[in-house]
Design goal:
With 86 residues, the chain is mainly α. It contains 4 helices and no strands. The protein has one domain: ACP-like (Non-ribosomal Peptide Synthetase Peptidyl Carrier Protein, Chain A), CATH 1.10.1200. Helix content is 62%, strand content 0%. Helix 1 runs antiparallel to helix 2 and helix 1 packs across helix 4. The chain is globular, with a radius of gyration of 12 Å. The N and C termini lie far apart (29 Å).
Amino acid sequence: MSSIEARVKRLIAEQLKSELKDVTDEASLMDDLGADSLDTVELVMALEEEFETEIPDEDAERIATVKQVIDYIKDQISNTSESDND
């Protein structure tokens, strides 16, 4: 498990008050982990702070599973790194 993956899963577990073992790649934030719309907003804010990035509302609305969160954050970080090198 990558450092990013571990950080995302830990953050999801903390924000949604879930057991870390339940935060699997396939887990749905709403269906499996019980997130409601307020939980999702708070999770997005926590992710933005943790990874020093911005997640537009339209992107956040398309993220449904833990794996999608991880992939999104990895993409954001790699895009930020690439633009820093320009």
